[in-house]
Amino acid sequence: MQQPEPPHSCVKIAGQPLRCYDFKRAGTARETPEDRTLNADNLLAQGAKTTNSRAQAGRSDEILHLVLKSLDDDKAEDVTQIDLRGKSSVADWMVVCSGRSSRQVTSIAEKLSERLKPELGHAARMEGKEQGDWVLVDAGDVIVHIFRPEVREFYQIEKMWQDPEPAKRLS
């Protein structure tokens, strides 16, 4: 009798050990109170104010500026900002960058979260910090992906959000 496949995904990157991620259990053992309070109702209860769309756009631009400054201060490499306004309801901006090592990737993410806390009123939510290959920092209207270069090349996340090339006529 054959064993069922485990609920995880493994990634092999040249020169690196095999990394496996258990998506079923990801985050459940390390959940923090902030992880449970990042919904709109709780943010309103904490004193966040509703604003019109123009003010929200200005706020996302302010957060983007803080993110870019923090990444520059921490020597993040190959920083790319992608305007998601009108393309996604999840966020207004996506920032993709690289760190030279797992340690630098983790450090960039931790410092970014610390620097954003006064602006956001709470710590930015992070995923992937334990592995240090790819850390996602959720700052509300700005999503930041911090990769090791090999992992960034493997996933090519920027291609997903680039404008499509015009169709070419074959004949």
Task: Describe the secondary-structure layout.
Blueprint: E1 8-11, E2 19-22, H1 33-36, H2 40-45, H3 53-73, E3 77-83, E4 93-98, H4 102-120, E5 125-127, E6 134-138, E7 142-147, H5 149-155, H6 157-161
Parallel strand pairs: 4-7
Antiparallel strand pairs: 1-2, 3-4, 5-6, 6-7
Protein name: Ribosomal silencing factor RsfS
Subunit structure: Interacts with ribosomal protein uL14 (rplN).
Main location: cytoplasm
Task: Describe what you observe in this structure.
The chain is α+β, with helices and mostly antiparallel strands. It has a domain at 59-161: 2-Layer Sandwich (Beta Polymerase, domain 2). It has helices at residues 33-36, 40-45, 53-73, 102-120, 149-155, 157-161; strands at 8-11, 19-22, 77-83, 93-98, 125-127, 134-138, 142-147. The strands form two sheets. A five-stranded mixed β-sheet has the order 3-4-7-6-5. It has a two-stranded antiparallel sheet with strand order 1-2. A hairpin with a 3-residue loop joins strand 6 (134-138) and strand 7.
